[in-house]
């Protein structure tokens, strides 16, 4: 059961589940806390999980003025403090992984470890062309369904399109009662595409696992490798046959991998 909590000057929607070591789950572009449902269900017997709606997604309002990754990282830090969590394992997906990077840089004492899924440290020409297309696509699509059908071509595997997973995701997204506005989508996207941490990632000192999908078109493995090479001691792994969202497509595999990583960190103290 979720609740709205006063965080960093806004009412942020938060879902909490389970018991054990604290884990903060940070969602990506457009996604509410429910994007992590397979982790909230599958890991709650071992961890105290916290998922939330970023500004402009789900039930957390879009702020006035410019939206930025540092602002959303400060939101995540303020949320942990509001919940009396001294430090947490932090997992971020796509845009959420950018927030996780900034959280570790701006509030290092709050982060025990990092899992960065489908991540990058700075955009390149291909990425900017892709997100430029997304920016007008969300306005020009003839219907919300058509927009999702186009957008999901970038983030799910051909397998997921063939086996009905994508159709199920579309139906769930269309039924969700807290739809994101076009403005909120575009402002979140602008924040993510201007992200730049490559020259600062060497400051991150916590254990870090960087995961990339072999078939990811949005954030291909070369971008994740660049992040891992910039963080001392980071482990980089490519998930064969997976695309941008393996935590949803193959949740058992994803959950097992992050569980092993977090257990290793806990054992090392």
UniProtKB/TrEMBL annotation:
Pfam families for this protein: Abhydrolase_1
InterPro entries in the record: AB_hydrolase, AB_hydrolase_1, AB_hydrolase_fold
Residues of the AB hydrolase-1 domain: 23-244
Ranges annotated as spanning the membrane: none
Gene3D superfamilies per record: alpha/beta hydrolase (3.40.50.1820)
Any one GO MF annotation of this record: catalytic activity
Stated name of the protein: Pimeloyl-ACP methyl ester carboxylesterase
Naturally occurring in which organism (per UniProt): Nonomuraea dietziae
Origin organism lineage: Bacteria, Bacillati, Actinomycetota, Actinomycetes, Streptosporangiales
